[in-house]
Design goal:
single chain; about 350 residues; mainly alpha; 2 domains; three-stranded antiparallel sheet; two-stranded antiparallel ribbon; 15 helices; globular
């Protein structure tokens, strides 16, 4: 019967009869058509992976995924430091600064540290004659003392220190207390050199050695009394920032040393003759450059950073012919003594 059906269909096709097409699978019995065989997948060949270069086409973007052969190592980017949001506390600004914000400050140590920087701590330099003008410099604070009846560019400070000592019930050398004037007893450098071994000179040296703490208090007092002059020309908001940063340093253990030493080092920042391109480099500018930080070691570190930046700016603004870049290493050496670890070590 099967063979008859196939024969009838074949005869109808040859005779031109129209028939509806039938699926091949329904006409040809299974097993008569060839079955497709699976083709083997091509194996990847080894090649060098070359990353595309997008630098020459700034608008181009890299594909989202670049397949890399297993044999090619993929570099791992370095881990990024987590972003830390530091919330700094606000500090109220009092109407007036206290006399000593931190009573535990060792004023003798502060005075001695300044003297170490100014005169290498040499006790023989407690009383010297200036090589700049006709006056003597005395004590840890290098107080200026002109001969009686004379004056000069540098402000005279030693007579004021003597008055400060007396007001604090500290005896001064008897020969000074009996003098009708507080002017210096040596008319010039030659007279000063001749008096090196006089009893009066010996008594004066001993007085200066024993009053380191008193001298420190006098030095800090002069600095604090100059604050209104330092900030007087600033806008109110900037004035508050400077006073706040000063207080933070004063309230930090050992913090009086950096702010006082920097004044001796580079001035208070108010002298218009100590500027390049309208930018000064004194204590005022350092306090302006400080970020708002809490009292403690972080404040010392921030003062050190601000001082370094201020001096770097001075060099950048200075005339090239001044060659101030050669001084940077010595300046930074002094600033390194403001590090919290250096201060903590020195105060032990």
């Amino acid at each position: 019967m099967k063979h008859t059906s196939i024969w009838v269909l074949l005869m109808m096709w040859l005779s031109g009869c129209t028939i509806a097409p039938l699926p091949v699978s329904s006409v040809i019995p299974p097993g008569l058509l060839p079955q497709p065989q699976p083709r083997p997948m091509p194996q990847p060949t080894s090649y060098a992976f070359i990353a595309p270069n997008y630098s020459s086409h700034p608008v181009a973007t890299a594909p989202a995924i670049i397949p890399a052969p297993a044999s090619i190592p993929i570099a791992t980017p370095p881990a990024l430091a987590p972003t830390v949001n530091v919330r700094r506390p606000a500090y109220p600004i009092p109407n007036s600064l206290p006399a000593v914000a931190n009573p535990k400050q060792d004023l003798a140590w502060v005075a001695e540290r300044v003297f170490m920087n100014e005169a290498n701590g040499d006790p023989n330099k407690l009383i010297t004659w200036s090589n700049k003008d006709n006056y003597a410099t005395l004590g840890f604070g290098r107080f200026v003392w002109y001969p009686a009846g004379q004056n000069g560019v540098a402000p005279e400070t030693f007579p004021a220190f003597l008055a400060f000592a007396e007001s604090n019930r500290t005896p001064i050398p008897s020969w000074l207390a009996q003098r009708p004037t507080r002017g210096g007893p040596w008319r010039n450098q030659a007279a000063f050199e001749r008096a090196q071994n006089d009893p009066e000179m010996t008594e004066l040296r001993n007085f200066l050695r024993k009053t380191a703490s008193l001298q420190g208090a006098f030095m800090v007092g002069r600095l604090k009394s100059n604050l209104p002059n330092m900030v007087g020309h600033l806008p109110p908001a900037e004035r508050e920032r400077v006073l706040k940063n000063f207080q933070v340093m004063e309230q930090s253990a050992g913090g009086l040393y950096p702010i006082l030493d920097y004044v001796y080092f580079k001035g208070d920042g108010t002298n218009p003759n100590e500027q390049y391109r309208g930018k000064g480099w004194g204590l005022l500018q350092v306090l302006q450059n400080m970020e708002n930080v809490p009292a403690g070691p972080v404040a010392l570190a921030e003062f050190m950073r601000a001082a370094d930046d201020t001096l770097m700016r001075r060099i950048a603004n200075a005339p090239v012919e001044n060659g101030e870049a050669r001084l940077l290493s010595s300046w930074q050496k002094r600033i390194q003594t403001y590090k919290p670890s250096a201060i903590a070590q020195a105060r032990r």
